[in-house]
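Take a look at this chain, tokens included, and explain the fold to me:
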Amino acid sequence: MRYIWYDLIGSFGVGVIICTYIALQLEKIRSDSLFYSLLNAVGASLIIVSLIYNFNFSAFIVEFFWLLISLFGVGKYFLQSKK
């Protein structure tokens, strides 16, 4: 197996999501924080970039919705902070 630059980007995205989840479980980050949603969006985006070059439909669907839900969280944060 060859490890190409987009594999590195995808692996970094996986690391971001895993570290974010660990931080959540260790109560170092809150699920309603902007940082949590942004980290999840970045992680999912990086994985999607890697999937562009080595497509896997199932993985793409999961990451696409992970990104959408994370962006919803970002939007929700900004809407609540305006109140």
Summary: The mean pLDDT is 96. DSSP finds three helices and no strands in the chain. Residues 10-77 form one domain. The chain has one domain: 10-77.
